[in-house]
Design brief:
- The chain contains 10 helices and 8 strands.
- The chain has about 270 residues and is mainly alpha-helical.
- It has 2 domains: about 50 residues, AN1-like Zinc finger (Zf-an1 domain); about 200 residues, Rhomboid-like (Rhomboid-like fold, Up-down Bundle).
- The strands form 4 sheets. It has a two-stranded antiparallel sheet.
- Helix 3 runs antiparallel to helix 6, helix 6 runs parallel beside helix 8 and helix 8 packs parallel to helix 10.
- The longest helix has 27 residues.
- The relative contact order is 0.10.
Length: about 270
């Protein structure tokens, strides 16, 4: 539920509750030090847990397991971040793909344009499939860097809307283009359409973010989006559109629409 930040008044779609004072704060003021928390001083004045247990005639120091602490930190991060949760599901899907076999796995879950009405679930499941480790690596790097950045700005629920609706529109765009324009029925897999939706939405909401194009060419995210869109437009339909460029462009359109809407309502973190 959207709440106003007690410190600055920003309406955050995913507010943080301070454990010291109990008030709601936005992402920028979630830390006690950031909102001059009145309960922090009282907490600091309390007796601290030293991590030492006293027994009669002896002192036993509490031991912590580094592995369990790291595991708990990872689980907490994934549970509180939907983009990382999607990344984990994709990785699990890739492992299942290897165990079950690519041909069988793709037969049931890949996007086949002519089958979207007979098997509508493929409009979603294709986003969790990848052709090989390289395909998986680049898509998940894209999700890892840009997904949390957008989720932090618009909240987890809206992030899921952008991701899945962009992916659905990309799947429909690819299917219509394949059947009625190109005239082929080549299956498609991958989360590229949904990821381009995230990228486009972030470009609208935060146009001054700098990204590393091909890892070393620095440019603003808006210019990078224009570059990728023009590249796909230039090669769309070539080689039977095996890269599913029509899906990329459809995802960009969906992401731009989401970004324009969110920017108009102003309900996002600047």
């Amino acid at each position: 539920m959207t709440k106003e930040c007690y410190y600055c008044g920003f309406k955050d779609p995913m507010p943080f509750i301070c454990k010291f004072c109990g008030n709601s704060y936005c992402y920028n003021h979630r830390l006690p030090e950031s909102h001059n928390c009145p309960g922090l001083l009282e907490y600091k004045s309390r007796p601290r847990d030293t991590g030492i247990f006293y027994k009669e005639g002896s002192v036993v120091r509490r031991k912590q397991n580094p592995f369990l602490n790291s595991l708990n930190n990872i689980i907490s991060a994934v549970k509180s971040n939907y983009s990382l949760m999607i990344l984990l599901i994709v990785l699990i899907s890739f492992v299942l793909q290897i165990i079950i076999g690519k041909n069988i796995y793709f037969y049931y879950f890949a996007l086949v344009p002519s089958d979207i009405f007979a098997r509508p679930w493929i409009l979603v499941t294709h986003m969790f499939l990848h052709a090989d480790a390289t395909h998986l690596l680049f898509n998940m790097m894209f999700l890892f860097f840009f997904g949390p950045e957008l989720e932090r700005r618009i909240g987890s629920k809206r992030f899921l809307y952008v991701y899945f609706i962009s992916g659905l529109i990309a799947a429909l765009g690819y299917s219509l283009w394949s059947i009625y324009i190109i005239g082929h029925n080549t299956p498609a897999i991958g989360a590229s359409g949904a990821l381009f939706g995230i990228f486009a939405c972030l470009a609208v909401l935060a146009p001054d973010i700098e990204v590393g194009l091909f890892f070393f060419i620095r440019m603003k995210i808006t210019y990078a989006l224009i570059f990728f869109a023009l590249f796909d437009l230039l090669f769309i339909g070539s080689s039977s559109d095996l890269v599913a460029r029509s899906a990329h462009l459809s995802g960009v359109v969906a992401g731009l629409a989401f970004g324009k809407y969110l920017k108009k309502t102003g309900n996002y973190l600047r």
